[in-house]
Recover the amino acids of this structure.
């Protein structure tokens, strides 16, 4: 009935208004500004200058490409290592043992802790006067703080990856645990009775079961690590600098022309993340059709 | 399992768990340490100095009822920021539930054209990073005169919050039978009474989870508050960020503990419920 349809539209309207105006509207407005359209400083023409300045100008190109490479490296490494270690943790924690509830609770403790706080914890832990450096000194492995390897504010993004690992291992781990719990152990028992060894049961029974959940959560983690500002800002260096930090620095530059460049960078981040989601949806669609 | 295997298993579990909680342990050490010089592993002396410095505990000798009262009413930076963070989180929670409840009902109960598109649009902010839309938003909010106000920041927090509220609540409505409402209506209850006595009790557990998420996601926002708040809305993460990028370790640690307290409390209260809820876990992923 016609009024039924209108009722649904009215129910959806407030939420959609927020999302369309504030989220999609801002994305669109950011895109227009990245094309150089800035009426408040009297710029009405449209061009791709900001993109070419950021990507190819002598001044910024090295900073951009090195930053892009670092961002990709950090996101890929964090996602892959966290997923791998989380599977191992989930396989440990799904056993029955004394203290399982306490262990599971402590395992997910970092889940609701904001990324910003974990980043600070990584500094306290891994800096060269941090807890691990002190432990090494007590053991007599190092004699001065400067002997401890530079893990925080390093040029390779190691501390950034560490922060993401501490945060995302519980995230992946809980998802894998939930899948394993809901599936039960019947398939594994069946495989065992057919003579499959431990590795075969993992490779041909467990892995295919957890793969869909693991892949979709990997997309979430990759997209998140690709676009977060706080963690690389606290744990990163000026060069090479991860893209979100670079984007905000352009944007906050007192020179209003640099705004377009900041917008261009944020658009590049959005496009890369969205491209990834599209590829993922295409792959998962194909996988569903094949089975 | 053999005995050796058993011991190895426990060693692995303890190792994993200890490694994961180590950053949080460092906060406790740093926040209560006094003159913790390198290379001491454990501080020789402990103190509440950091907590006195941020104005949450009165100085020694003033820890009387009057001293506490004077401290709380003095309005130190941290106490003001705590107030702002709590008010903001509360406002965002109320707004997001009121706005999201009808949408969640529509998505959970009905099939309609463009449903997939609507779901996709509502979920989009969970995958697109804040940095991608906040810059465009910032300029418009300054133009509309919305930036720098608590309400403006609360409205902007709705963008990352709405997907989780709608997702959690639409899951509740997917298992909800609206015929009970019709029965109440035929028995003469008005829409308000129907909502209060029929709808609300049956969706209440889901509503609590959605509200907790809304609060936590808002509580942990840094970048959105920083840019839209324009330096006038100061929350705990903003003080913490400033302190962490070049302040005192003990003070940073004390602030961190305050910052994570609501989140850990929530986990403590809802641990059992969350472990089976993938969509709820997704909310934590973005914090």
């Amino acid at each position: 009935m016609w009024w039924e349809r209108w009722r649904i539209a009215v129910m959806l309207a407030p939420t959609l208004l927020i999302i369309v105006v504030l989220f999609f509207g801002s994305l669109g407005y950011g895109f227009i500004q990245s094309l150089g359209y800035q009426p408040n400083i009297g710029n009405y023409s449209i061009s791709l200058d900001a993109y070419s300045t950021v990507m190819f100008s002598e001044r910024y190109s090295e900073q951009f490409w090195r930053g892009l490479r670092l961002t990709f490296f950090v996101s890929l490494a964090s996602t892959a290592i966290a997923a791998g270690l989380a599977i191992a943790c989930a396989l440990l924690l799904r056993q029955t043992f004394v203290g399982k509830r306490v262990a599971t609770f402590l395992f997910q403790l970092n889940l609701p802790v904001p990324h910003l706080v974990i980043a600070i914890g990584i500094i306290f832990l891994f800096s060269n006067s941090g807890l691990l450096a002190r432990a090494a000194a007590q053991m007599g492995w190092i004699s001065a703080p400067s002997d401890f390897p530079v893990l925080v504010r390093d040029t390779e993004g190691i501390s950034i990856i560490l922060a993401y690992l501490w945060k995302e291992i519980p995230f992946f781990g809980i998802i894998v645990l939930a899948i394993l719990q809901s599936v039960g152990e019947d398939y594994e028992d069946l495989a065992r009775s057919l003579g499959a060894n431990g590795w075969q049961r993992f490779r041909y029974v467990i892995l295919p079961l957890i793969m869909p959940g693991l892949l979709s959560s990997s997309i979430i983690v990759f997209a998140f690590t690709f676009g977060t500002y706080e963690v690389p800002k606290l744990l990163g260096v000026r060069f090479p600098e991860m893209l979100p930090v670079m984007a905000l620095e352009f944007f906050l530059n007192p020179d209003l022309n640099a705004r377009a460049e900041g917008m261009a960078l944020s658009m590049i981040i959005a496009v890369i993340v969205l491209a990834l989601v599209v590829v993922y949806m295409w792959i998962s669609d194909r996988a569903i059709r094949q089975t | 399992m053999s005995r050796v295997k058993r011991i190895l298993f426990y060693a692995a579990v303890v190792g994993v768990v200890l490694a994961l909680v180590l950053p949080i342990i460092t906060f406790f050490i740093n926040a209560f340490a006094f003159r913790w010089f390198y290379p001491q592993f454990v501080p020789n002396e402990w103190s509440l100095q950091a907590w006195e410095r941020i104005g949450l505990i009165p100085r020694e000798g003033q820890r009387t009822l009057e001293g506490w009262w004077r401290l709380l009413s003095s309005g130190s930076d941290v106490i003001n920021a705590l107030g702002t963070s709590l008010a903001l989180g509360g406002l965002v929670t109320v707004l997001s539930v009121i706005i999201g409840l009808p949408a969640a009902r529509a998505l959970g109960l009905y099939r309609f054209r463009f449903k997939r598109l609507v779901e996709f649009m509502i979920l989009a902010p969970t995958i697109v990073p804040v940095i991608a839309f906040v810059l465009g938003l910032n300029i418009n909010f300054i133009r509309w005169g919305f930036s720098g106000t608590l309400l403006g920041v609360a409205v902007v927090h709705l963008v990352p919050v709405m997907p989780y509220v709608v997702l959690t609540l639409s899951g509740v409505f997917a298992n909800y039978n609206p015929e009970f409402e019709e029965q109440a209506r035929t028995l003469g209850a008005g829409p308000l009474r129907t909502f209060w006595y029929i709808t609300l009790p049956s969706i209440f557990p889901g509503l609590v989870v959605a509200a907790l998420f809304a609060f936590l996601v808002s509580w942990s926002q840094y970048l959105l508050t920083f840019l839209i708040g324009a330096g006038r809305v100061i929350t705990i993460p903003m003080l913490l960020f400033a302190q962490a990028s070049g302040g005192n370790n003990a003070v940073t640690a004390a602030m961190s503990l305050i910052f994570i307290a609501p989140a850990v409390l929530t986990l403590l209260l809802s641990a059992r419920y969350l472990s089976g809820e993938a969509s709820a876990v997704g909310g934590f992923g973005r914090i």
In short: DSSP finds 13 helices and two strands in chain B. Residues 77-109 of chain B form the longest helix (33 residues). Confidence is low (pLDDT under 50) at residues 275-279 of chain B.
